[in-house]
Amino acid sequence: MPRFFMEDMPNDINCGDTLTLTGGDAAHITRVLRMKAGENVTVCDCRGFDYNCEILDARAEAVSLRVNERQPTATEPNVRITLFQGLPKGDKMELIVQKSVELGVVRIVPVITARSVSKPDEKSMAKKIERWNRIAAEAAGQSERGILPPVLPAMNFEEAAAMLSQADTSIMLYERNGGTLGEHLTGKKPDDIGIMIGPEGGFDETEVEYARSRGISTAGMGPRILRTETAPICALSVIMYATGNI
Fold first, then answer.
1. Are residues 100 and 205 both part of a single domain?
2. Which is the most buried residue in 158, 180, 203, 241, by most CB within 10 A?
3. Are 63 and 21 in contact (CB under 8 A)?
4. What does pTM read for this prediction?
């Protein structure tokens, strides 16, 4: 069933009430999906509930819905994961955003590190963030997420490390030492995990030492060196397995 998100939905919506989707959602329903009155969609309030709705009236500018059923969202993991991703070059970030949202992150933070080749100016970065958020929204709908994980504005390394250090479990992926990611998660049941992954050239030694000085652990992903776009998919899969979400 097609899925849409309404972050500003009132808290008192019940069965029998009506909702209205506008803008891009209404256009998608009418022009892309070509849905009509009598067909059903799911609307998620991004607060833990899904609403099974019947289309009452479908127009390109607005789609009117009747709520037939309200039920808890069953697709969100029991752990909050924030991905801090060293800014890669080209369009690799698009794949990273898409797959990370599918795997269950709650937010993504692009990080400009010492070895980031791509360092867009403010205007270019704003356009990239906008596009990445559209990709995140599409991935959230496809994977039936209960929230819309945001891609936050890009941070420099020090800002990102300060934010990462606030997590219950904070880990920087670093290939040289520190044990494996699986070992760091064994026996732990954290509610909040932050994981930082470097760009194509990895992290500079000074960044690693700075992270450790903030209480951030370092961990590897085994004997092989993974590409920057492969590492988050692998790491998130490991975390989801270790926390019982896969």
1. yes
2. 203
3. yes
4. 0.90
Residue 19 has pLDDT above 80, yes or no: yes
Last residue of a domain, one of 18, 51, 72: 72
Q: Is the pLDDT of residue 62 over 70?
A: yes
Q: Distance between CA atoms of 110 and 88, rounded to whole angstroms?
A: 9
What SS3 state is found at 21? strand
Count Cβ neighbours within 10 Å for each residue of 197-224 and write b for 16 or more, e otherwise: bbbbebbeeebbebbeeeebebbbbeee
Position 56 pLDDT exceeds 90: yes
pLDDT > 80? residue 177: no
Q: Are 86 and 106 in the same domain?
A: yes
Query: Do 61 and 157 belong together in one domain?
Result: no
Average pLDDT, the chain: 93
d(CA 7, CA 145): 13
Tally the residues of the chain: 246
Q: Which of 25, 55, 72 is the last residue of a domain?
A: 72
CB 202 within 8 A of CB 115: yes
Range of the domain at 15: 3-72
pLDDT greater than 80 at residue 176: no
* pLDDT tens-digit series, residues 96-107: 999 999 999 999
The rounded distance, in Å, linking the Cα atoms of 202 and 179 is 17
Distance (Å, whole) CA 35 – CA 60? 11
